[in-house]
Amino acid sequence: MDALINAEPAASDERPGTIGRLERLCTALVRALPASGAGVSLINEDHTGGGIAAASAPLSRRLEELEFTHGEGPSVTSFDVRRPVLEPDLAGRGMRRWPGYAPDAYGLGVRAVFAFPLQVGAARLGALEIYRDEPVPLSAPALRQAFTFAEVALALLLDGQNGATAAGLDDVLAYRAEVYQAQGMVMIDLGVSLTEAMARLRGHAYAENRYLSDVARDVVAGKLALDVDSV
Question: What pTM does this model have?
Answer without folding.
Answer: 0.77
